[in-house]
Amino acid sequence: MSDYMEFLKTKMAIAGDSGFEIDPNELNNAMMPHQRDIVAWALRGGRRAIFAKFGLGKTIMELEFCHQVIKKLGGQALIIMPLGVKQEFTHDAVEILGYDRPVYVKTMAEVFENNDKGILITNYERVRDGDIDVSYFKATSLDEAAVLRSFGSKTYQEFLKKFSGVPYKIVATATPDPNKYKELIHYAGYLEIMDTGQALTRFFQRASTKANNLTLYPHKEEEFWLWVSSWAVFVSKPSDVCSEYSDDGYDLPPLKINYHRLTKEKKELSIERDGQSRLFDDAAASLQDEARIKNRSIKERVAKAAEIIAASPGDSFILWHDLEEERHEIKRQIKDVVDIYGSMDIDLREQRVIDFAEGKIKLFATKKILSGSGCNFQKHCHRAIFVGIDYKFNDFIQAVHRIYRFLQTEEVVIDIIHMDEEDEILKQLLEKWKRFDHQAEKMSDIIRKNGLSSVDSISDKMKRSIGVDRVEIQGNHYRYINNDCILELEKMEKNSIDEIVTSIPFGNHYEYTPSYNDLGHNEDNGRFFEQMDYLTPNLLRVLKPGRVACIHVKDRILFGNATGDGILTSIPSI
To answer: Cα 79 vs. chain centroid, distance in angstroms?
Structure first.
């Protein structure tokens, strides 16, 4: 029985430590106490996620993590980031930490040319397209890892393969959307904490009509967040890490949001596929309606933006837009605006970003996909205009926090321009924002409650999931027992059962109870049959000679969204 109980303990979903211990006081003196604690925790774990709110020093922590790994192990480290963000790493490495300037590389040839440099930086496209072989590096960091969403699921699967086996790696982003559980699961898969499909089946129930609609099993919610806290840290302010740490300087400024709801008279009726005409359009009805409304309202929306700017001539503004035609219209209507765009020379584009961040440009037009992640504009700008809206909440919230972040000294004013036909889009955007703030606070509360959890401390909290309350009911012609069948069979007499009828659950397809004793609570088929090895001999032992054990089996169907194969596959029952 003791061996079986030890086996059950190994089923706990906890990320093990694979790194090395370091005293936080040995880390760079320029770092804040909460930053040193988090880096020491990440180095001990080896493969971890740092989800730090805007302005808490995520860039510094990434740099120090990489610096300490190569200091101990030698070799080189690579930080992968969105285009246009490298100036932030260069500044923090040189001006704050006092390290050498990280070298930007585009090919492995350039990596080898700079083999005397400890930390190198590149962008996601270089890794995606195979120009950089990440397996060469001792440590890697994905900065603003949430941008992987925009690359699609195929790129995500490729990243899993490319980074597999990298001994030290972290993901760092300020906004993992806590409304999207699958994003957290993807990070766990990338960090080699738990296979994506395994995490899906362990923690979530799926809607029968929509496979991607994930809902945590009610009895699994606490275990899920404890599991996440074993490999990820969520920090909104320094005191989240330690109650004794001061939050001075980490108070967000006041935030004011102005909504500008515009209307536009239609010159003709919209015609639907079936030939029916429609008097009113609704951007929420379809992607085609959304695009139609956006395209025909560009001049009006940009005119409103120009009006807002004219009313505050002394302020700097960032104009967030999504369409190229919006950019052209901004250039036509707003004097002295400086823009950037995707096909622009990357060095010129980067210089314009730097110039705006340093206050050398007052009016800056850019897309969320270009400047929405990683850029710090709060020093010289507290006004932002969204020339249009869409459903992409993460892009929106990232863009807001380019200026609404720690060290901002002014009240932040956000102007959101939308058409009346886009009311539903705005409603959903604001609802997501509300849920985001609620869930982010919930995740930070985990850290405040448990601290930077060690494997042992989390194990203690999850031990209570082991064990079953034995219940026995008996009458004249029956005897029902509810218990872990392995523990119950060990107590039964040899050759005492006339027939065995059972349908043993799949190893990790469903979980029927919150207990680790559940046979359906296993990582994979291998682990399932390890537990079966405690059951099968006892089934044979208690069955009378010549009698039958009837065990129901069937092929198991695996869904493509869980395996990454994109198609249904199966595991044969025999």
So the answer is: 17
